[in-house]
Design goal:
The protein is α+β, with helices and mostly antiparallel strands. It has two helices and five strands, in the order ααβββββ. The protein has a domain of about 80 residues: OB fold (Dihydrolipoamide Acetyltransferase, E2P). A hairpin with a 7-residue loop joins β4 and β5. The longest helix has 14 residues.
Length: about 120
């Protein structure tokens, strides 16, 4: 009898997993204005920006511009799309602000999408 209890007790907890409520409200606010981000960079704040990669700075660092302001972005190679693009192609990036002590803010990109080509 104890063996049966030890087998079915953990199973009972896993079956009841879907009965817990989940949060379904609106997402957190996402900043989309580079001027605001540069004026008051908040570490780990999620952002979504449209603009252009205007310069490659190192193996994974680039200069991103929205046409008026510029910020350094870090993009892992696997995030780049299969088709090539250049500094004239509008892209959208999503990621988090990285603001380290005594350093300028940069964006750690999680997603890169070509808007037009």
């Amino acid at each position: 009898m104890k063996r049966i209890l030890w087998v079915f007790l953990p199973l009972a907890f896993t079956l009841n997993q879907n009965s817990f409520a989940q949060y379904v409200g609106p997402n957190a606010v996402i900043k989309t204005d580079l001027t605001q981000i540069l004026a008051d960079p908040v570490d780990d704040e999620y952002v979504k920006l449209q603009g252009y990669l205007v310069k490659k700075l190192s193996s994974d660092k680039y200069l991103f511009s929205d046409g008026t302001k510029e910020i350094r972005v870090e993009i892992d190679q696997f995030l780049f799309p299969a088709q090539p693009f250049d500094d004239k192609d509008l892209i959208e990036i999503e990621g988090e602000v990285e603001k380290d002590f005594l350093e300028s803010a940069e964006i750690d990109v999680d997603r890169l999408t070509i808007v037009n080509q």
